[in-house]
Give the backbone structure.
Amino acid sequence: VFFIFNGGKNVVSSAIMFFTQGDFSHVSISTNGLNEIISFATTEQNHGLVVENYYDFVRIRKPKVIGVYASLVTLADYEKIKDSIEYYKANTNKYGYSWKKFFLFPFKSKQVTGVNKDTTELICSEYVTYLVSNTELAEDIQKNGGELKPLMTPTAVRDNISLVSQQLYEGMEE
């Protein structure tokens, strides 16, 4: 499973990194290399589940920093994550991007609740942590002193994923 983190050059990405004091403003996941990158985001085409390849990911997001991490997972966990992604892809019209969570998150509002299967509006980090929750990967993160919570900054997700993943790349994208 691949985790792709980025920090963009646009106003929204810059604001996220400013308020969260993090290196990244977005997190995505892939079970298919960089051929299919999945996240909850806002693009010109969609405000919700976004499926893109690496070329479109870079072209649309125009990142100034990228981090790519790979985690070995059990076949059962891989299938669990992949099946969940396929469910969201098949039901994309039922899910949207949560502007409420986006705007309240920097203030750590108590109104922002955790992910559950009935959540219909998500933000990127919430979606990725949901996909990984209840897997051995989440247990391994906890064993290594980390914790995946429903609402974390993309940088905090990276810090926790990096405890059990191989960093493939992190740096500036030209």
In short: The CA atoms of residues 9 and 64 lie 6 Å apart. DSSP finds seven helices and eight strands in the chain. The longest strand covers residues 63-70. Residues 109-116 have pLDDT under 50 and may be disordered.
